[in-house]
Amino acid sequence: MDKLHLSAIYIYPIKSLGGIKLEESIIEERGLRYDRRWVLIDGEGMFISQRKYPQLSLLQVNIMDDSLTVTHKENSQHKISFLIEQQTGGNIPVTIWDDLTNGVEVAENVSNWFSEYLNMPVKLVKMSDKAHRAVDKKYALKNEIVSFADGYPCLIIGQSALDNLNSKLQMPIKMDRFRPNFVITGGEAHVEDSFKDFTIGEVSFSAVKPCARCVLITVDQQTAIKSAEPLKTLSTYRSWNHKIMFGQNLLHQGSGIIRVGMELEIKTFKEKICL
Asked: Which pLDDT score, from 0 to 100, does residue 275 have?
């Protein structure tokens, strides 16, 4: 097998908003530092995402020193900032799919800014340090926990998988449609399907579940325009058990610094999914 190297690292501090590309990051118990530690919720405490509100893709998050800034991609004057540690009030129930966890509202003025943008009442909440949201027991290895991510601490995708997809599309798309944490170079298309256990630096990872994709990947992250692609094309060659698979969900053991350029050392392989 070709050598496999980490070519990109991404975090998405506020779930379903624009991600941040990093040269290095620290992986913690819930995943990469600051990844999906904040989420927007509606009046019932249910998380909201680009699946229903594609305009969220136009809000770009950046971290500078001890603050987060959210800026509209098409209007840089439309922005708001708040401290990473900022929070007010007590715990608020937060529902992520079938999981019930909790968070703390950042600030009323911050929630109001998002409410005005979405034209509906929402709150921006930060995951409580004491919140314990467990990974699905069916796939957990050592009672792992997760942030406000859909279900797993990290997601990995090979650049060759996207290159292969783009060779089939009339209009190529960017990797940001798939919102990975790690992008790797080397190997054949979907080489990550064969990973079982591997290391990046001093951190051990296990690929525990293929990532089933939804309509979110049909949202252009630069324009918020939805289309049939790439789900339409992926359905012709990446369908498995009536789901479209692209990328691998990961669990990890330990903590440490992950840097772009690090080599993946594959310890064990599994049989690739049959598509």
From this structure: 62
Task: Kindly tell me the sign of the dihedral angle through the C-alpha atoms of 208, 99, 56, 52.
Answer: positive
Distance CA 49, CA 210 (A): 21
Distances (CA, A) of 244 to 97, 187, 193, 247, 256: 19, 21, 13, 10, 32
Residues making up the chain, counted from first to last: 275
* Average confidence (pLDDT) over 165-183: 98
- On whether the pTM is more than 0.85, the answer is yes
CA gap 200, 204 in Å, rounded: 7
Q: Hey, where are the domains in the chain?
A: 4-267
Positive/negative CA dihedral, 159, 165, 169, 174: negative
pLDDT band of residue 128 (cuts 50, 70, 90) is: confident
pLDDT per residue as tens digits for the range 84-113? 999 999 999 999 999 999 999 999 999 999
**Number of CB atoms found within 10 A of residue 267's CB:** 13
Superfamily (CATH H level) for 4-267: PK beta-barrel domain-like (2.40.33.20)
